[in-house]
Amino acid sequence: MTDAAHPPSEQEALRDTLVRARSKKLVVRAMRWVGWSFVWVGLFLIGFVLHQLFVTDLLADRAQRGLESDLVAQASPDAEVVPFDRDTGEVGAPLGTVAGVGSLPEEDGGVAAPGVGDPSTTPSDFSVAPGDNVLLREPAPDRGEPLGRLRIPDIGLSWVVVEGVAFRDLRSGAGHMPDTPIPGQPGNAVISGHRTTWGAPFNELDELEPGDRIFWDSAVIGTHTYVVREVIIVEPTALWVTDPRDDAWLTLTTCHPEFSAAERLIVFAEMVDGPNAPVILGEA
After folding, report:
1. In the chain, fewer beta carbons within 10 Å around the N or the C end?
2. What mean pLDDT value characterizes the chain?
3. Which residues are CB-neighbours of 265 under 8 A, at least 6 positions away?
4. Which residues contact 14 (CB under 8 A, 6 or more apart)?
5. pLDDT tens digits for range 174-186
């Protein structure tokens, strides 16, 4: 212990100076480490955001370029013809097949389905009596494979949809929920898509209004037209939106608001036209 009467020796003073210098050096080193840590974390976050906003979009766009050609190339050449009981909603076993469309329509048009019972497209051992309630049906592809094309002219959307809604499936932007009917068939067909990242096909889904038209293009059975009936916001747990429905519906789901999964934006659209519409709607 030192005081005014006993000043510190030169050795003690030198030791105190070294201790202070060492402590200062450790503080500087710690601050430098913290600073570089923030820099690297910041760079990582910037890189992550750039990847999510831009790189994933580029990957999805590249995937889309291949999916449309695959959709036609992999399409079954034949469409199954199945009986349909409108009162019960039951679909029977296939009666036979007719030649499929084999192509997608132009962006501003549709493709007529082959006429059921047409001799030019129907095998000789298969016939359908006039007035029979039959539907055209296509098989679901494997998970991740292209299913059909979704078009919504009012928001400039044209997107090939794949089968499946797992993360790997939605890397192309939008996918069909496997436990629901394929669009163009009776019931409630559900399609989920990204609102941001991975092409963001459903980014402007909130701009849709009742009366807007949605088109579903199949390279097997043609084009079906749906009309938006309702646009709502629900909780993520509102699984009732995927429940079965009478007639034929298309339900589109995405996250809401943008850059958040706090809620879900849901669009309900009802079939009004297409190869299967007259039979499903009881107009045949």
Report:
1. N
2. 80
3. 195, 202, 205, 206, 231, 232, 233, 253, 254, 255, 256
4. none
5. 999 999 999 999 9
Question: Does residue 137 contact residue 80 with C-beta atoms inside 8 Å?
Answer: yes
Tokens found for residue 274 = 């297409």
120 band by pLDDT with thresholds 50, 70 and 90? very low
Using DSSP bridges, classify how beta strands 78-85 and 222-234 pair: parallel, antiparallel or unpaired: unpaired
**CA 20 – CA 147 distance, rounded (Å):** 72
Asked if residue 217 lies in contact with residue 107, where contact means CB atoms within 8 angstroms, the answer is: no
Between strands 134-137 and 96-99, the pairing is unpaired
CA distance 204 to 152: 10
Residue 33, pLDDT score: 74
Containing 269, the helix (H) or strand (E) segment is strand 263-273
Residue position matching structure tokens 């090939």 = 160
| Average pLDDT value for residue range 8-28 | 69
Give the pLDDT confidence of 121-144 residue by residue, as tens digits. Answer: 555 455 666 567 889 898 888 998
- Cα(210)–Cα(269) distance, integer angstroms: 8
pLDDT score recorded for residue 240? 96
What is the DSSP track for 202-264? TTTGGG--TT-EEEEEETTTEEEEEEEEEEEEE-TT-GGGGS--SSEEEEEEEEESTT--SEE
CA separation for the pair 271, 248 (Å, rounded)? 5
Token code pair at residue 91: 């679909």
Note whether 91 and 82 are within 8 A (CB): yes
Quote the pLDDT of residue 238.
95
